[in-house]
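Hey, can you fold this one?
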Amino acid sequence: MIRIENLTKKFSGSETIKTTDLEIRAGEIFTFIGPSGSGKTTLLRLIDLLDRPTTGTIRFDGQDTGGNEDERLAFRRRMAMVFQKPAVLNTSVAENVSFGLKFRGVPDEEMQKRVSAALGLVGLADFASRRAVTLSGGEMQRVALARAIVTEPEVLLLDEPTANLDPVSSDLIENLIRRINRTFKTTIIMSTHDMLQGQRLADRIGVVMNGRLVQVGTAEEIFYQPAGREIAHFVGIDAITGGVVTENTGGHALIRVKDLCFEALTKLPAGQQVIMYIRPEEVTVSPAGSLSARTSVRNQLTGRITKMVPSGPFIRMNIDCGIPITALITRRSCTELGLGAGTMVVAGVKATAVHVLPNEG
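Sure. Predicted structure:
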């Protein structure tokens, strides 16, 4: 569908997008995640042909999009973009939604049918005559989505589509994104700083940091098998450094960190210095000496809880086991187990939950 090759973009001599190669498949939801200012919006604008790259090419169904403005407009009409802060005209909702169709010269009767269908899809069928500027932020975002999909784009680009919305409105928009993708097989490319949203929606995710696309993969690969320390930190995993593979038998390795020994699955050979990554929710916590601490989990580390921080329905806790371990458990479990700062616990980690990378620094 869309192939990006050797893409760069400079503004005032500064390289905002560094050399990027990427293929986006027809019909998928592809999500860019990354810190604010990392280049996600710039990538979307380049793909939507709003800006021209400094170097490199963007191909749409194998065709180079770098031609003259008329040629680029023809490609743009096969796409639609919804921005983080949707702009609406001071006219009726129906007139806002029909805006792109008027530019395309769509006959009135067909225009009315398509506008009505689009408003029905986004749940605003009864809002057609309302003035768009009087709507709430979530309703305006749905108007913007209707205005985009009414043109029947092959590709829909969404820049932080729920960034300024309350949880209920965000949930509505996410459901709409899924419906548009499944109903019309529309290829959707979006950016978000909400990593959970990326996990919920995306078929594949691209991590953007400092203008560079540093990893592309499924949610499982990005959040459980990060390609480096900076990515791991961004997706909420603390690194355990100072490890050395002491032996490896058929991919089942023993890794020593200080006085501790971990079992993990890796192909890295004995003698290799490594960094380990363990997602906090993969760590089980039990009071030291309790029956619940006696499990078949390969890695069992005894330590003291040093810090507990609420995180929605969960508690994020730091445990000093000679090395720092982070765990994420439900508030109910924390209460039932009688855990608090200073409690001695056993942190359990399955060998399959330890992601191992070579320490190259």
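Residues 167-184 form the longest helix (18 residues). Let me know if you want another pass with a different chain boundary.
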